[in-house]
Amino acid sequence: REFVCSNVLSSGINAEYGDVTAFFKKYDKNGDGIIDFNEFLALCIDINSSDSERAVAALFAAVDKNGDKSLTNEELRQGIAAYTGKKTDDAEVADLIKKLDIDGDGEVSYKEFTENLLVKIAVAMKN
User: Fold this and answer.
1) 46-53 long-range contacts, Cβ below 8 Å, gap at least 24?
2) How far apart are CA 118 and CA 86, in angstroms?
3) What is the tens place of the pLDDT at every residue in 16-43?
4) Which spans in the chain are helix H?
5) Which whole-number Å values give the CA distances from 35 to 49, 111, 126, in the listed order?
6) Do residues 109 and 103 touch, judged by C-beta distance below 8 A?
7) Side-chain-side CA neighbours of residue 118 (13 Å)
8) What b/e sequence results for 88-102 when a residue is b if at least 16 CB atoms lie within 10 Å of its CB, and e otherwise?
9) Angle between helices 117-126 and 50-63 (to 10 degrees)
């Protein structure tokens, strides 16, 4: 639980610890503080539903201001501010890009964004 909470909270998501804990508890059916394999599968099915996929795609489109299917540092900064209501500094945006940028090109592609588990969890928490 602590791993999920700390990673979700450090990913630029506007969520309180209690919100993340409540989301975690929704899937921790036996209440042991660990998401076991079957519980993880249930979470994955939920966050990979067509509704969730549409929500993640819509979020990407809203942040991708120039429509090039790649998010720059500035687009992410503005997107985080719009989505979370908080301003971010260069270090926070750089850290988020580092977490999401699989190919190392310095930007976050549509594929990198939409396939990231933390992004999907963040969207699921908001919906």
Assistant:
1) 46/124, 47/117, 47/120, 47/121, 47/123, 47/124, 48/120, 51/127, 52/120, 52/123, 52/124, 52/127, 53/114
2) 18
3) 667 777 877 888 888 888 878 788 777 7
4) 2-9, 17-27, 37-47, 50-63, 73-84, 90-100, 110-114, 117-126
5) 19, 26, 20
6) yes
7) 18
8) beeebbeebbebbbe
9) 100
Distance CA 127, CA 121 (A): 10
Number of neighbouring beta carbons within 10 Å of residue 87:
10
pTM over 0.85: no
Three-state secondary-structure class, residue 108 = strand
Confirm if 70 and 110 have CB atoms less than 8 A apart.
yes
Alpha-carbon radius of gyration of the chain: 15
Nearest to 5 by CA among 33, 31, 32, 30: 33
Q: What is the SS3 string spanning 51-86? A: HHHHHHHHHHHHHCCCCCCEECHHHHHHHHHHHHCC
